[in-house]
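Collaboration report, partner site 2.

Our partner group contributed sequences for two proteins of shared interest, and the home lab folded both. The records are reproduced in the order in which they were received, starting with the first partner submission.
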Amino acid sequence: MTEARTESSEWLIYRGAGEPHDGMDRLPPPPPWRDFASRETAGPGADGSQNRRLGAHRHLAELHRPGAEELEMINAALYLRRPLLVTGSPGAGKSTLAHSVAYELGLGNVLKWSVVSRSTLQDGLYHYDAIARLQDVQIAAQGGFTSAAGGGAGSPGAVEGIGSYIRLGPLGTALLPSDMPRVLLIDELDKSDIDLPNDLLNVLEEGEFAIPELERVADRLPDGEAEVLTADGAKVRVRDGRVRCRAFPFVVLTSNGERDFPAPLMRRCIHLELGRPDHKRLATFVRAHLGDEAARRGDDLITHFLERSRSELLASDQLLNAIYLTDAAAPASRDRLADLLIQRLDRPR
């Protein structure tokens, strides 16, 4: 009994003994989908999110292999320049789809807007920091420093510097004029309040929006332009206070199916429903993130996961967590630990 207990606890880094030790030296590298240090080696303009979403070993798993209907709906959205509304259970690959399209078509980093119950259309379009601008003007007036606002509120410098206090959101950035479309992921739209889906209609239909703070002073700006910051940190010039896309972005709206959306939004979208993944797709998913050997050793966990998912709401990333941890850290307590990590998401409270 003692030997079994010792063997099963060998992997523990934190032991709860209340005594400092150097156990952190034994901590293995993080799972690929939690390796944030990879951002430093991702290359110019990359943020490391593709590796975390698609997998560091995605070449082994032949990337993301959609089914025929899925492939047709994605291409329909690309051809028609319409948003793609993707519904499915948690972990079905809804978000991964956006990253897969961006990677294969060379469309750069995915812009992501994670929707919560408090999200408004304004959050997605832009933010104007009026308080910071006022504070800078006041400090500059007292001789503290030369602010971006450039002096009093009515001075020419104040007008020219207004762009320093405007940052475009993910949706606003995606609508900037460019020859190639950006990929925008509006994640978990069903968590929004009742107004947001309707508020999105005009922007998604027209592909443009106004920034009133810039429109009001456009005639006093050099060439009618102001330099603002994008959601991914670049500086761009906005003319006449309006952002108008040239190439409509590839917009993926995801939903866990927790609510219905208004008919006008559905009419403007291509709707794709992702079914429950089968064994082959889950094995591909594991190979992409952990490699062939880990997928082979975790085959029984994949089978057990599929059996449970017939009657329980589970997420595929729970399976990844279980295979990584039981394969790399805790083989002696493998089955018990896997069950602890793969807990049903719809269990009664």
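Second partner submission, folded after the first:
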Amino acid sequence: MKRLLLLSLIPIFGFGFQSLAQGDLIVSPARLVFDNKKQMQELNLVNIGKDTAVYTISFVQKNMKEDGSFVNIVEPDAGQMFAEPFMRIFPRIIKLAPGKPQVIKLQYVRKSDMADGEYRSHLYFRAEKGDTPLGMSDVKIDSTKLVVQLIPVFGISIPIIIYSGSVNMASTLSDMKISNGQKDLQTLKFTINRTGNKSAYGDLAVEFAPKQGKPYPVGIMNGVGVYTNIDKRNITLNLTNDSGKKLKNGKLKVKYMTSNEKKPVLLAKAELDID
């Protein structure tokens, strides 16, 4: 008896860059924030693949863990609020030809009884698999054996955030330490601490200031968030050094700055002496 098992692999990504790509889909921007002044926004999608693709758009709920990874949830934690009930999407199903763009409109529908704070959900783009996998019509299957065919079903998700009423956030950097690995690789570890009813979001830049000589950049990490469901996030950043030697006899300076602004605002900073 001939049997065919079709398995789906669904990698889902969170937020990070100004444009986010997975599979053959590019989504820009990779994060949308709504408030009383900004209630209608657009997302730009582009199919960079060779085949026409169909995507369904829906909301999912996620929480961030302290290592920066995500877990799916159904019910909000205490004090957590979802953005989905206050959002409208147009359209929810799109068909994209190769190289063709598509604009998705999102509207924030504010209600008078909304509590102050941040509301967050994640917009999920799911590529629908075809009825017949590519190449399957040409494959000869041995009817006496079990055949497993892996069909990639790609998905991508981005955060949708609403600021309602009074929101505030403060952040600090702590627990900085440097570790030495193989081939002069050095890793900086530290913690971003967050307080308030608003997520932290920004770019990390690390500079090394030797005791003699000019400071120079040794590390960067863009689009680093700490969501409201956690009050700290642990960061591990591999340092780069053009000299090929380990950093020593100086000071590491770390800055956490707001992203995608003409004049970035400093959110937090810290220093670490290296002997």
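Feedback sent to the partner group on the second submission included the following. The longest strand covers residues 53-64. The chain has two domains: 8-164, 169-274.
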